[in-house]
Amino acid sequence: MDKPKGLKRIINAFKYSLKGFKSAIKNETAFRQELIMLVIAYVIVMLIDFSIYERILLLGSIGVVMIVELINSAIECVVDRIGPERHELSGRAKDYGSAAVCLSLLLTVTLWIYLFACHFFP
């Protein structure tokens, strides 16, 4: 069977992405928490007189956390699909995904602290 090409492929990819978002919201607690964090952050960032570049950095950093969380969740799904037995490589794959989320969160927190400190304590 031929795979769709052109606009049809793009439309299908978008549908799969929406399906992924819905699934992440339904099944992934961490993703839901990060989505709430993004909404709260958006309100905070819009209420404070940050430059457009600072706003992009602040909100973009949370977007990066969400992207990494989705990738981590995908890794966990694949590992869990393989089988319930414990295996060193499966554990390492999950740990690496978790470490990536942790690093993205640390980067985000550091960026937020720095930009807020620069803004309120110049």
Biggest sheet layout: none
Portion in helices? over 70%
CATH fold description = Helix Hairpins
Radius of gyration from the alpha-carbon trace, in angstroms: 18 Å
Secondary-structure class: mainly alpha
Total domain count = 1
CATH hierarchy class name: Mainly Alpha
Gross morphology? globular
Low-confidence runs of at least 5 consecutive residues: none
Q: Number of helical segments?
A: 4
Average pLDDT, all residues:
94
N-to-C CA distance: 62 Å
- Strand runs, count: 0
Strand residues, percent: under 5%
> Architecture, CATH level 2?
Orthogonal Bundle
H/E series, N to C?
A: HHHH
Organism: Gilliamella apicola
InterPro entries: DAGK, DAGK_prok, DAGK_sf
Keywords: ATP-binding, Cell inner membrane, Cell membrane, Kinase, Lipid biosynthesis, Lipid metabolism, Magnesium, Membrane, Metal-binding, Nucleotide-binding, Phospholipid biosynthesis, Phospholipid metabolism, Transferase, Transmembrane, Transmembrane helix
Binding site for a divalent metal cation: 28, 76
Summarize this entry quickly.
This protein has 122 residues and is mainly alpha-helical.
